[in-house]
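queue> holo job accepted (zinc ion)
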Amino acid sequence: MKDNKFLTLGIETSCDETAISVVADGREVLSNVISSQIDIFKNYGGVVPEIASRHHLENINGVLSASLSEAGVTMDEIDLIGVTMGPGLVGALLMGVSTAKALAYAAGKPLVGVHHLNGHISANYIQHPELEPPFMALITSGGHTEIVQVDDYDKLTVLGGTRDDAVGECYDKVARVLGLGYPGGPKIDRIAKEGNPEAIHFKRVYLEKDSLDFSFSGLKTAVLNYLNQEKQAGREVNRADVAASFQQAVMDVIVKKAMDACDLRHESKLVLAGGVAANSRLREMLDSACSKKHISLYYPAPILCTDNGAMIACAAYYKYQKQGADGLDMDAYPFLEL
Ligand code: KG4
Ligand code: ZN
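queue> job finished
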């Protein structure tokens, strides 16, 4: 039922989740259907782009019907269509963008293309109805690690980012060499709870003084070297200790830089976003660091941390209010800047 609410359909296909959601008035989730390809990519140890696009194509109509029916609305009642236009895997993005354009054209609805990272940040508007910009955002996902100043719904400035691997990518690679499977983030999170974070000292890379950039590729190599060295010496490796020590090395750097960013811009609100925002150690450490500095910390429920259509619908709703609709010439942009 519509009840005079403004309904946005949000479509997300930038990686390996085909996700469509209906959101009322920007923040109320009426449906959030996610068809994940994780089971398929477990066998490959990571996402294979061509296979991901094929599965989006097979799944997208079913996910759309399920999402509309779960929300109890028809396509006619939708007021706006929002879709992830980038960044992401180009073939995967195109599945969402083409579907969104076809629906917008056939049903005569306005269309808005959304930046995937603005979508991740927007998951927090859904989770915390009182949250409004300005605030500092820390985005940690499979493809991105960025610190972003959010001055308004559509005014975002990147203050720092990774110069090589993203945090989630690093978690997935380390999990693979530890034989924990894909996706590695949740597995390392779990096993690290049984390990000692001080068992092995991996170097923390802070880069230049005052830099808000990150570099994680050296840490990934350090874990690999440690495992090889132990193997050659014939010593058995304690995987929980390696996971806990690796995780601590990552989180020490991330937490320090997030706090530095808040200090630098005198920000009293910090928002977490992206798949790695589901990490329990990150939440624990930031909870404690923020409460010492009287900074309010916001993060979404785990289901809204990883890719979903609701965050895209929310970001589309605010972009539409501020900037109006995009044309049907809107495209998929694999390397879109914020
Ligand atoms: O945001 P997301 O769904 O996709 C991208 O936009 O990249 O993030 C997926 C990433 C994966 O690398 C996954 O391993 C990581 O988020 N992840 C986690 C946790 N849950 C998911 N990393 C650490 N701890 C977790 N609990
Ligand atoms: Zn994502």
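queue> The chain has eleven helices and ten strands.
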